Amino acid sequence: MTASIARRPTRGCSRACGRLATRGCCCGSFTHRINNDLTSAIIIVSLAAARSHSGEVKAALSAVQDRVQSYASFHRALQMPEHTTP
After folding, report:
1. Where along the chain do its domains lie?
2. I need a labelling partner for 78 at 20 to 30 A (CA). Which of 7, 13, 37, 84 fits?
3. pLDDT category of residue 6 using cuts at 50, 70 and 90
4. Confidence of residue 22 (pLDDT cuts 50, 70, 90)
5. Radius of gyration (C-alpha) of the chain in whole angstroms
6. What is the mean pLDDT of residues 69-84?
7. Using a CB cutoff of 8 Å and minimum separation of 24, what contacts does 32-37 make?
8. How far is the C-alpha of 51 from the C-alpha of 58, rounded, in Å?
């Protein structure tokens, strides 16, 4: 993806997918990447908290981890279902 595409605001998922589909990228790919990035952030913060010897640092990183997990839960709640039932 070029930098100009990444910076350009989009007006809805379908319009963004229409522009990016020709480059082999779609909303499902974005969703997957966002999920991976949030998971990576949670793991990094969790490992940093586990390695710290300071109670204050552990508490602060725990709050960060909770916040990122909330973002991940919210992102999952916003996802469209992949299959519909008849």
Report:
1. 27-80
2. 7
3. very low
4. very low
5. 17
6. 85
7. 34/75, 35/72, 35/75, 35/76
8. 9
What is the per-residue DSSP string for 24-69? T--HHHHHHHHHHHHHHHHHHHHHHHHH---HHHHHHHHHHHHHHH
Residues 6+ apart with CB under 8 A from 65: 42, 45, 46, 49
Reported residue count of the chain is 86
Q: Angle 27-51/13-20 helices, nearest 10 degrees?
A: 100
Average pLDDT taken over every residue of the chain: 77
Q: What does pTM read for this prediction?
A: 0.62
Angle subtended at Cα 51 by Cα 57 and Cα 62, rounded to the nearest 5 degrees: 40
CA distance 6 to 47: 30
